[in-house]
Amino acid sequence: MTPNPVALITGGSRGLGLALARALAERGWRVVVDGRDAARLTAAVTATPSLVPVAGDVTDAAHRRALVDAASALGGPDLVVANASELGPSPLPALAAAPLEAVRAVYETNVIAPLALAQLVLPALRASGGTWLAISSDAAARAYPGWGVYGPSKAALDHLTAVLAEEEPAVRAYAVDPGDLRTEMHQRAFPGEDISDRPLPEQVIPSILRLLERRPPSGRYRAASQGAGPREEATR
Fold this sequence. Notes:
The protein is α/β, with parallel strands linked by helices. 41% of the residues lie in helices and 16% in strands. It has one domain: NAD(P)-binding Rossmann-like Domain (Rossmann fold, 3-Layer(aba) Sandwich), CATH 3.40.50. Helix 1 links the parallel strand 1 and strand 2.
């Protein structure tokens, strides 16, 4: 890996994506980040000059190409983080009432877009022996009432990543479950509820950084918040 490796992180204007982007930048990485809200993305990266913002929607093919071009211009990517996610309707509906158009939108963001992005970045990741990291959820592995739209989409992303690991031996491919976090998306899943007991995204970043530094075998891993027991745990 080069002295100043390059990362591409989708959904980097807030939450876990922004926290990871800032942590990597502090360690000398050059990081390309995206977000659908251009103004919010610009504000998020203002304090971190090594973050390169590319506003747009990851479900848009031209935007994905622009992201990869931006990372390529920096000499990468060495790491690609599929973090952008769509929750679906809020409050969370039962499957019997799930609007199919909303279901399609969730799968476009959480499954189709990551696969399309992977197809674009694989040549660079093969060349660098780089890393593909997909942000998962415990709802991908366990069934919860109301999570029948989001959870299966993340299960599909997990399996996509597992197949990628089998097909691309030169690339490390991880699906990482960060646990319940205090984010806007998690608040949308529980409208009106107090989620202040959940850890902030910054609290699981050390676990993700250790995963990237150690580069264990490809697989599914669970990140724990700092000081909350095992900080990196395989769940394959």
